[in-house]
Amino acid sequence: MEEKTIDALRWIIGIFNSHHIAYQITGGFAGKLYGSQRPLNDIDIDMREQHLRTILPEILPYITDPLARYNHDGKWDGEFITLNYRGQVIDLGGIDTLRISNKDRTAWIPYQATYFDTLDMMVEGVQVKVLHPRKLVEYKKELDGNHQLVDIAAAERYCIEHGL
User: Fold this and answer.
1) CATH number for the domain including 17?
2) Total of domains in the chain
3) pLDDT bucket at 7, cuts 50 / 70 / 90
4) pLDDT, tens only, 97-152
5) Which of 34, 61, 69, 153 is within CB 3.0–4.6 Å of 158 for a Cys-Cys bond?
6) pLDDT at 114
7) At CB < 8 A and 24+ separation, what contacts does 80-83 make?
């Protein structure tokens, strides 16, 4: 794992811990922690929307896309903020009203079903909460792209290897 990723992870988890904020690591980084070998694009983290505002003063210098409601390509609809911490992109999403469209983009699915169903993992000395691999598989099956298939395979393998 790249040093910039570990540095960013230590920094953002430290902020969450100092404010006692519940969170879950999702997306490609969760896939990577479950064994995915694809290149990492960013660190995706979900939390309650109110906490996005709580940490604003500490993350302000690193914001590249401000806190707002975004509809990303008709795929995701929710409150997001994007950071760049020393070269590592971090996407923070509010989970309270977050929705994902189905694969056909004909209906919205509430994302709250994954809310804090996590596993505790140690990453380079940092204790983190990662979306349960079965929940990761559930939502990634609604996403497009071969990279999603790589993450799904890794998460399914992790479940088998760890009896989940």
Assistant:
1) 3.30.460.40
2) 1
3) very high
4) 999 888 888 888 887 656 789 999 999 999 999 999 999 999 899 888 889 999 99
5) 34
6) 63
7) 81/52, 83/12, 83/59
Q: How far, CA to CA in Å, does 138 sit from each of 54, 124, 155? A: 30, 27, 10
Contacts of 155 (CB under 8 A, 6+ apart): 30, 31, 34, 35, 36, 133, 134, 136, 137, 140
Tokens of 126: 């940092």
Q: Tell me if 9 is assigned to some domain.
A: yes
Question: Which residue matches tokens 């694009």?
Answer: 41
5, 88 Cβ separation under 8 angstroms: yes
Question: How many angstroms separate the CA atoms of 127 and 119, rounded?
Answer: 10
Q: Which domain holds residue 42?
A: 3-153
Report yes or no on 19 lying in a domain.
yes
Mean pLDDT value across residues 27-51: 96
Within-domain flag for 162: no
- Spatial neighbors of 146 by CB under 8 A, at least 6 apart, are none
CB atoms < 10 A from the CB of 101, how many?
19
Please tell me the total number of residues recorded for the chain in this structure: 164
* 159 inside domain: no
